Each structure stands twice: as structure tokens, then as C-alpha cells.
Amino acid sequence: MTTGDLIALLPLVLVGLTAVTVMLSIAVRRRHGLAAGVAAGGLAAAFASLWPAAAYVPRQITPLVVVDPFGLFFIGLIVAATFAVVILSHGYLARQAEPPEELYVLLPTAALGAAAIVVSSHFISFFLGLEVLSVALYGLIAYLTTRERSIEAGFKYLVLAASSAAVMLFGLALIYARLGTMEFGRMTALLTTRADFYDPLLLGGLVLVLTGLGFKLAVVPFHMWTPDVYEGAPAPVAAFVATVSKGAVLGLMVRYFRESPAGGGPVFLVFTIVAVASMFAGNLLALLQNNVKRILGYSSIAHLGYILVAFQAGGAMGAQAVTFYLVAYFVTMLGAFGVVSVMSDGTRDADRLDDYRGLFWQRPLLAGVFTAMLLSLAGIPLTAGFLGKFYIVAAGASSGTWGLLMVLVVTSTIGLFYYLRIVVALYATGRAGAPDAARPRAVPAGSGLVLAALTVLLIWLGVYPVALLAAIKTIFVGLI
Amino acid sequence: MILLWLVLIPLLGGVAAWTAAQRRPLAARWIALAAIALDFGLALLIWIGHAGRVGLASQGGWLVEFDHAWLPAFGIRFHLALDGLSLLMVLLTCFLGVMAVLASWTEIQDRVGFFHFNLLWILSGILAVFLAVDLFLFYFAWELMLVPMYFLIAIWGHEHRVYAAIKFFLFTQLSGLLMLVAILALYVVHHEVTGVYTFEYGALLHTPMPDGTAMLIMLGFFVAFAVKLPMFPLHTWLPDAHTEAPTAGSVILAGLLLKTGAYGLIRFVIPLFPHAAMSFSPIAMTLGAIGILYGAVLAFGQTDLKRLVAYTSVSHLGFVLLGIFSWNGLALQGAVLTMICHGISTGALFIIAGALQERMHTRAIDRMGGLWATVPRLSGAALFFALASLGLPGLGDFVGEFLVLLGTYQVSIALAAVAVVGILGATFYALRLVQRVFHGPNPHGWSLADLAPRELVMMGLMMASLVWLGLYPRPVIETFAPAMTHLEEVVMPVVPPEGRP
User: Fold this and answer.
1) How close, in Å, is residue B242 to chain A by CA atoms?
2) For residue B277, is it within any domain?
3) Domain-embedded: residue B156
4) Does residue B158 sit at the A interface (CB-CB below 8 Å)?
5) Do A411 and A279 contact (CB within 8 A), yes or no?
6) Percent of chain A, pLDDT > 70?
7) Do B352 and B498 fall into the same domain?
8) Is residue B259 pLDDT above 70, yes or no?
9) If you average pLDDT over residues B438-454, what whole number do you get?
10) Of A409, A427, A466, which is closest to B154 when you measure between CB atoms?
11) Are B129 and B244 in a shared domain?
12) Are A427 and B170 an interchain contact pair (Cβ–Cβ within 8 Å)?
């Protein structure tokens, strides 16, 4: 391994080091601010190291890892999102009874796993990354040990993630048995050239792998865990589950499924069915919820369905649309769960609609941020979600997948309804105008800054994202 | 630049009003009034500056333009442009904007700052809709005006405000998304033919495409505009939204938002898809004629004052639809004039309904009666606008609807006959309104305050403009005529005369 290889891997190394440093710092001195500060600093350093790393890419480092602009972009996204989650957690955990420091070990560890997934080019590195991510998530989701829901959610995730990992491993084994390679690049090359696509062993293996991926993406029919986990997990962790763990898997899929033409082969038929089912189920089931975190959970299922529409479109435009939408989705989901974290206290998370009733008249800025995030989820102009949706429809239109687009139009209108329910509560007047006295009054400074930054990003992405569009265009140039 | 300012001033004014209201609510009202009056002034300046020269359209037919790169990756430009048609719509927007601010002067007492913020942002969105000639920008503005309108209805509306607001939002959003798909389909088709990705209106005109494709894309646009218009049977959001909205909201909904639908049909649907629109026109015209009758009949049966006025909108906008799809000089002139006059007369009726509600705390016609004795000035104004609405010769609405009838007659005698019956219906509901509310005995013993000077000024201005439009509409017609001629020329070479209905 050369120096260049090491520099290219620097972001990953720094994220890993962050986890270790936080652990050591806890051993020396147990202080909440210190642990959060070290974690945030390490992640910031990892983010900064993207620029030196960019000078040494693209390169294949051992058969396991490929670092290229695309991978670095996704690592940047993951690291930045984790940074935001760390800051939000600091404000959130200050109100909890649990010792908070260990969370800052688990978060960078999970981020390391996620980052490893996006740069993996081999079954082994992919699976390692996936397991590092999952194991860290078990701890994160069940972090608040005094809350039953949190424990329940952790166990649910543990059981389901472990079994889906096993299923996927079996699928990988089947593919290996047929193709004789564990490298993704050679695997996709063989898949596109081989005529015997319907070979049962291969097809079975692919379906099992897709099951595993689908579980991580929480798309229908692998979505059952989502609402419970989102409800039970601490709000910042829910933000992490909704963004980072999905983004990493999606990054890998864009990298390797990007070239396959739309509608080509049974895999894409599966994707179509999954996309349609996710859009319908996510939006329809969200209608039945009264719990804000569950609503956001179902909404994230629907949003992954939208992303799959662009994914289906294929080609350069489809892949770019997926990437752009993912960035918009990251910003929006972090912001939405960020508001929930800020509103939560030591006894329970602010997940009832009533917690938000009339919030605008008490705390206009916070409610304004939440409104912006909800409107972005609904795809209303001036927000990132609007341009993201526009991009997806453009990608769909350019590949002529009209059926999927019509499903998107209909279901996102259904979706509008439950976003508006929250907005109605935020702006409710008259009866019960004053929110519950138990709700915390002050927004922690760090969380406030993160929310402000996310809101600025949201509007920038919705109005003038020229720089991001250019960046997304370049990362697909020379994608290995 | 001036076009950019037209859009920006209300946006900035909205923020300023909101901030100022923290200390003094009255300041918010004055800021809002000043902002929209300034816009009105700018629009008047453009009008006067181009008086007599509107015929000399520069390239593309625009009087004023503002063009700036926005998202080059998609070929999106921030392109605003103005011709005679948009100029009149802009003037109407600013005029009714002033009226809307004035109408809320005493009605809105809580959360004054946020109210005026929303009000001005809606107006800005509407102005951008009338000015945008980049389809992406158009869609952007189209969606943008929804959110503040939703807030206006949901926060300051009447009893069933949340229901009405959500219904309004869902209807327009669904149809809007269909339009988005249609816009992007056009964008892709254009790229396939020319290799250029663009949303530029001028470039997308004359995009060759198969008839079936054109029809589908046209329908995507048409549905969005027909919901806004509203066309029977897509109108069901309208009575709820109009009834539950605060007065300013009703004025803007009836006076302006509905016009964006009609404007979209004139500006986009027919010029972009002449063939498809022409083969679709019998259906559209029939639906328009049904709307005229249906609106009139339902208006007649209403017991809620605002609901009654709301249904008259369905009827009047049926004339507009009929006129647009007749697509000949007379009918189009009539349609545009009807758009303007309907905006003023219906806006005024909503202001009167709002004034009554503010004084009586009810909109139920049954609980009114004999009000003439106690509020003679208000009653007189109501009579005036009711007569305008029923199409009394000498007032603006008459000219518009008469021209539409003349134009439609050339295309379809049967539909013209049906529309005439609609005018008859208008006589019934308008006279019933005056009869039941203002005449007869006063069984409930109402004793109310008559119009305040502020309200008198508003009524006076609106009456004067209707009389002017009724007696001497030439300046207005001359303003939009060149633009319409231009649009007709866009359509003409494509559709041979015998192919036109």
C-alpha cells in the first residue's frame, strides 16, 4: 500500500480514529461535552481530509476498496450527516438520564461502516461495512435503556438485521457459486454479458441479496421494522437510521446497478414492484398515524420509493437524480428529526401531534424550520425536496417510465395530506394554544445552529444548487 | 429589471410587514399597502410608457424582459417577460392586491404581521405566474402561491377552514404535479427533436410531436389550469375555499387565482399544442357551457352569501373557457375582458359579503333582509355589483360576455344559445341576492354601521373601473390585442383555417 493509497483512505481512517479517540477520552475523563467535542472534531477533520484525498483518486486499493470521486462524495455526505447527528445528540442527551458519552463512540463507528459500504468493491468489504454499521446501530437504537420502546426497537432491529444479513450472505454465496467472483465490478460485467440470466441459482442469489439491501433501505415489503424503530430510537438516532444507513446502501447500488438499462431483466422488474409498493404503502400507512416519528418513518419509506423511480430510469440522468434527491432527503430528514430532538425531553420524545399544536405562535423560528422541512418532504418550491422531485420526474420522463411517474404523482399527493396534518397542528390557533408546559423551552445552541444551517442548505438546494449539480455531474465522470 | 422588482417588492414587503408587526400591527398594514401600491405604480408606469406603442412588439412580442441564467444544468433560465396580456393581468393583480389589503384593515385583528406576509407572498407568486416565460419558473411560481394561500385560509378562515384549506391544497397540488409531468414530457420531446434541453417558452412553441403525444401532454397542462379555473366538474374545491377564506383570501382567490388558470390556457395550452387543443375544443367548450348553467343554478340555491358568490364564479369562468376555446378574435377579447371584469365585480361582492359578516357575524341569507334601510350605501354598492355580475349593459362584464357570445356564435350556435340561458340564470341569482338581503322587511331588526370612508373609497374605485370598462374598453382592448394577435399568429400557420372549429 502506497502513501497515495493511505491519503485516499484518509477520510475512512480518520472516522475510525475518531471512534477510538472518543473511547480513550471517556476512559480518561467522562464528560459529555468532551466526548461530543472530540467526536465532532474528528468528523470535521475527516470531512476536511476529503480534499487531500480527492487529489489521489480514483484508485483501486487492494481488490476490496475503490476510492473515487463518487465514493468520496458519499463519504462526505455520510460524515456531514453524522456530524449533524452528533451535535443534535449533544443537546438531546443532556436532558436524558443515561450516561451520554458512549453514543459518541457508536456514531462514528456506524459512520465508518457506512463509509466502508460506499467504497467497497468486493463482497467481503461490503459485508464488513454492513455489519459494522448494523452492530453499532443495535446499540444506538436501544441507547435509552430506561425506555421500553427503545429496548424493543433495538431488539427488533437486532433480530431483523441479523436475519437479513444472513439471507444476504447466503445470496452472495449463491452468486459466487455461479459466477466465481466476489468482486462487484466483475460480477456486474458478467451479469450484463451472460445470457442465462434466468439461471435459478443466480436469480435466487440476486433476489436474496436484494432482500438484504431492501431491508437496509426499508422499502416495501422489507419495511416492517421501520415505524417501530423510528418510534423507539432516540430522535437523533432515528435521523441517523433514516439518512446514513440508507444513503450508504443506495450509494453502493447506484455505483453497480447504474449501467443496467431501465426495464432490463428481472432485477429491474423487482425494483419496479418494490418502488410502486413503497410509494403506496408508505404514503397510505402514514395517513393512519398520529405519532410524528412514525409518520416520518412511513414518509421515509415513500421517499425511498421515489428514489427508486429515478433509479429505474437509469442512465446518467437517473443516477444523478438519485444522488441529488438523496442529498435533499438527507438535509430534510435531519432537519425534521432535529426539530423532534430539540422538542423532546427526559421522559419521552416529542412524537405526539399535540406536542406541536400552536408551536408557531410560541416559537416561530423552530416551527418555521419544521414547516420548511415538511414542505420539502412534500416537494413544495423553494425547498430542496422540490428540485429533488423535479429531478426525479425529469429522469423518469427522459426514460419514458410514465407508469411509475403517475404512481409518484398520485402517491405524493396522498403524502401531502399527512404533512399538512402536522403543519395544521403547528399553526393551530385558539383552543390549547399553549403547548404542554413540560416541553423544554430553550433550544440548545448547537442544535439551533445545526437546524439553522440545515434550513439554509434546504433553501439553497431548492433555489440555486448550481454548485451541487456541477459536483454531481463530475462524480459520475470516470466512475469505475 | 423592472419585472424583477415587480416580483421582489411584495416578497420584501411581506418580510418587512411581518417584522414590523412585532411592535405595531398598524405598521404592517401600511407597509403592505405601500408595497403593493408601489407595484401598482410600477405597472402603471409600464402601461403609460408603452401606451400607443404596444402594437410595435419587439422580437418575441415582449414589451419588457428580464432574462438571467438560473440552473444551466437543466437549461432553466430566470426569464420574466411581459406583453399586453400579462401587463393587464399584472395591473389587475396589483389593483385587487390593494383592495385585499384595504379589505382586511379592520377584519384581521390577530397575527396581523403573518397575515400580510402571506398576502404579499401570494401576490408575488401570482405576479411571477403572469410574467414567467420559462416553464420551470412558471411551475415554480405556480406552486409557490399555494402555500401562503393555504395558510391564509387555514389560519384566518371561518368555521371549516382547515377542511377547505386542505381540499384546496390537494386539488391544486395533484393537478400541479400532472402539469409538472407534462412540462417535463414536453422538455424531453423537445430535446429528442432538437437536441437542446430548454424550458424556454419561445423555443418550445412549434415543437413537432405526434398527435397522440401532443394530446396527452396538452391534457396534463389542461387539467392543472382547469382545476384552477375552475371548470366543471373539477370545481368542487372552489365553493369551500371561497366560503371559508377571509375576505382578502376570497378576493384573491376569485379575482386572481382563477385567472391564472385562464391565463395558462391562453398562454400555454393553445399556443403550445394548437392541434391537440383544437381537436379537444368541443369537449372543453361543452364543459364550459355546462359550467355556466351549473354555476348559475347552484348559485341560485345557496343560503350562504359567500357560497352564492363563489358559484357565480364557476358560471362566469365558464364564459372564459368557452371564449378561449372558441379561439377567434372576438371570443378571446371577450374572454380576457371577462377575466378582468369578473375579477373586479366578484372581488367587490366578496368585499361586501365580508363587510356584512364583519358587522353581522353571519353569512346566512335567511338571517338577513331589509338591510337597505340601515345600510343604504352598502346596499347600493351591492346592487351595483350584482347588476354588473348579471351583465347589465354599460358595465364591464356585459362587454366581455357579449363578445364571448358573439365569438362562440361563429363556432357553435348551440353552445352560444346555452350560454345565453346562463346569462338569464345570472339575472335570477343576482336579483334574488339583492331581494333577499337588502329589500323587504327587516325581520331580525338589524341596525348596522354603514360603509366607512375606507370602504367607500374601495367601492368607488371598483365601480369606476367597471363603468370605464363598460363604456370605454378601448384602451384595455388595445393593450392586449397585439399580444392576442401574436398568439393567434403562433397558432395560425399550424392549423389551417378549415381545421379550426
Assistant:
1) 19
2) no
3) yes
4) no
5) yes
6) 95
7) yes
8) yes
9) 83
10) A427
11) yes
12) no
B73 vs A412, A413, A469: nearest CB: A469
A residues 384..403 contacting B (CB < 8 A): 386, 390, 393-394, 397-398, 402
Residues B322, B342: Cα–Cα separation, whole Å: 15
B278: in domain: no
CA distance, residue A469 to nearest chain B CA (Å): 7
Cβ pair B143:A381 closer than 8 A? yes
Q: Could you tell me which of A241, A233, A386 has the C-alpha nearest to residue A301?
A: A241
Provide CB contacts within 8 A for B458, sequence distance 6+. Answer: B99, B102, B103, B348, B351
Q: Mean of the pLDDT values across residues B419-437?
A: 88
Closest to B143 (Cβ–Cβ): which among A361, A380, A397? A380
The answer to whether residues A176 and A123 touch, using CB atoms and an 8 Å cutoff, is yes
Strands (E), B8-148: 64-71, 76-82
DSSP B19-37: HHHTT-HHHHHHHHHHHHH
Q: Are A252 and A120 in contact (CB under 8 A)?
A: yes
Q: Please state, as a whole number, how many other Cβ atoms lie within 10 Å of the Cβ of residue B447.
A: 11
Tell me how far the alpha carbon of residue B481 is from its chain's centroid. 19
Do residues B220 and B310 share a domain? Answer: no
Cα angle at A32 between A28 and A33, to 5 degrees?
Answer: 100
Domain C-terminal end among B272, B305, B339: B272
Q: What is the rounded CA–CA span in Å between residue B306 and residue B402?
A: 26
Q: What residues contact B271, with CB distance under 8 A and at least 6 apart?
A: B205, B487, B490, B491
Cβ neighbours of B76 in A, within 8 Å: none
Check: CB of residue A255 under 8 Å from CB of residue A120: no
The pLDDT of residue B49: 82
Q: pLDDT tens for residues B166-190?
A: 889 888 888 899 999 999 999 989 9
> What is the longest distance spanned by two Cα atoms in chain A?
68
10 Å Cβ neighbour count for B45? 11
**Residue contact A473–B73, C-beta within 8 A:** yes
A58: preceding bond cis by omega (within 30 degrees):
yes
Q: Which residue has the cell 435503556?
A: A145
Q: Does some domain include residue B449? A: yes
State how far the alpha carbon of B360 is from the alpha carbons of A103, B445, B473, in Å: 61, 11, 37
- Closest Cβ–Cβ partner in A410, A420, A427 for B169: A420
pLDDT band at A261 (very low <50, low <70, confident <90, very high): very low
Choosing from B237, B272, B307, the residue where a domain stops is B272
Beta carbons within 8 Å of A359's beta carbon, 6+ residues apart: A366, A367, A370, A425, A426, A435
Q: Are residues B79 and B165 in the same domain?
A: yes
Residues B314 and B250 grouped into a single domain: no
DSSP B303: -
B142 and B179 in contact (C-beta within 8 Å)?
yes
Beta carbons of B305 and B358 less than 8 angstroms apart? no
Nearest of B125, B116, B127, B142 to residue B92 by alpha carbon: B127
* B356 and B217 co-located in one domain: no
Write out chain B residues lying below 8 Å of A384, CB-based: none
Find out whether A361 and A432 touch, Cβ atoms under 8 Å.
no
Main-chain phi, psi angles of A442, to 5 degrees: -95, 140
**What range defines the domain where residue B79 resides?**
1-272
Mutation target vs A (from B19, B173, B196; most A CBs, 10 A cutoff): B173
Q: Smallest CA–CA separation between B188 and chain A, in Å?
A: 6
- Residues sharing a CB contact under 8 Å with residue B226, sequence separation 6 or more, in sequence order: B175, B234, B261, B287, B321
Q: Does A81 score more than 60 pLDDT?
A: yes
Same domain (yes/no): B147, B92: yes
* Co-location of B380 and B416 in the same domain: yes
